[in-house]
Write a structure and sequence with these properties.
By secondary structure, the chain is α+β, with helices and mostly antiparallel strands. The protein has four helices and three strands, in the order αβααββα. A hairpin with a 2-residue loop joins strand 2 and strand 3. Helix 2 crosses helix 3. It is globular. It starts with a helix and ends in a 9-residue tail after the last helix.
């Protein structure tokens, strides 16, 4: 089984939708939409979405996510 330290390290490698939104300068709903549209890789941890930090880095290096137009 995974040690407690390994578990904590893995959690730091993943962001909540709020953390990812803050780092990318977009809304939480934009992050959730991007996950559902396949623009961002994410996974469920219990009832909450998590986004790998590598995904945020990838998006920062490329085109920014667009907020939906109203």
């Amino acid at each position: 089984t995974m040690s407690r330290m390994d578990q904590m390290s893995r959690l730091r490698d993943n962001l909540t939708t709020s953390e990812a939104a803050r780092e990318l300068g977009v809304s939480r709903s934009t992050i959730r939409r991007a996950i559902h549209e396949g623009q961002i890789r994410g996974f469920r941890l219990r009832s909450a979405w998590r986004i790998p930090r590598a995904e945020v880095t990838r998006i920062r290096a490329g085109d920014p996510l667009e907020e939906p137009s109203t």
